[in-house]
UniProtKB/TrEMBL annotation:
NCBIfam families on file: fabH, PRK09352.1
Gene of this entry: fabH
Gene Ontology annotations of biological process type: fatty acid biosynthetic process
Gene3D superfamilies: 3.40.47.10
UniProt function note: Catalyzes the condensation reaction of fatty acid synthesis by the addition to an acyl acceptor of two carbons from malonyl-ACP. Catalyzes the first condensation reaction which initiates fatty acid synthesis and may therefore play a role in governing the total rate of fatty acid production. Possesses both acetoacetyl-ACP synthase and acetyl transacylase activities. Its substrate specificity determines the biosynthesis of branched-chain and/or straight-chain of fatty acids.
Domain notes per entry: The last Arg residue of the ACP-binding site is essential for the weak association between ACP/AcpP and FabH.
Protein name per UniProt: Beta-ketoacyl-[acyl-carrier-protein] synthase III
Ranges for region ACP-binding: 255-259
Amino acid sequence: MFNACIIGTGSALPEKALLNSEIGEFVDTSDEWIVRRTGIKERRISLKEGEGTADLAALASQKAMEMADVSPEELDLIVVGTVTADRLVPSAGCMVQQILGAQNAAAFDISAGCSGFLYALTTVKNATCSGACKTALAIGVDRISTILNWKDRGTCILLGDGAGAVVVKASEKETGILSSHLKSDGRLWELLYSKEGNSYVPECLEGLKPKSSYLVMDGNRLFKKAVNSLTDIANQALKQNNLSGEDISILVPHQANMRIIQATAQSLDIPFEKFYINVDRYGNTSSASIPLALDEANRKGLIKKGDYVMLITFGAGLTWGSTVLRWCF
Ligand code: UT7
């Protein structure tokens, strides 16, 4: 058995920053309301050619591979958490593989809403620890703007586009990913779902009926469920690793809403200062939110070798999860 160590992080964002005031031009909202209720000031939206889901994911991956000093040929696995692959077929994973030139890898996608990255990381960790693969990429990417209803002020203010990636390597050292807890509750899928879309409505029978694959959300109920689930899963992880909140150097939460993060910090015995937050600049980037924030924190020098790092996530499905790591480099 090996341990799975993160040895490089990377992220990529579209150039276009969409301000709250710009959203106020097409739905009935205001910068004041959005900042007070969510903490979000702006988010990135991918509008340009060459800023597809696979392009952003590949760019984030290249940065992580550069940090890790890993070549494309060394990769034997690429797992992408996303709900907005550029195409229904093939997977974003295979398109990333092609852009990177990682011809020795197996590549595929995982759909777990905003929890996609932790589901991808856990899959990579299990493959690495079992010896099935040596060097892998776990990616979280979404161009969630492509499935937003830009007339629904309850959702379109919250989300943004982006990508984050980590290189994971098998190691015999004691550090690395210490635990992964994943949960889902399909009974609550209707709290956040895409309306129609993909193959739910058989389009050959529906004729020319336009697709309406945009997101539908029950924000209030999700908010409460998010805080409870994030708190439970973080406590489970602390217990399993015999750690207290004091031991955690940095906690990277899913960046859903500043108030969700504050409420979770309050229910956990972990000081708010240890939470890394960038929701103000990027909004909720779905699967990308954790690896994007992790990369920022890492590049700012906020994570040191030997630190205990906790990642907690929550998203559509419903899905949620946590990962505890001992930082390797
Ligand atoms: O990634 C994981 C999945 N997502 C989440 O976990 C999101 C969880 N939910 C949330 O973040 C929050 O519930 C929202 C930010 C979506 C909404 O905030 P809230 O404080 O829960 O507001 P609310 O839904 O209770 O709405 C309060 C009022 C309503 O008006 P009335 O009925 O009181 O007159 C809404 O119509 O605010 C209104 N409202 C808005 N007003 C201005 C809702 N959205 C907006 C808006 N601008 N963008």
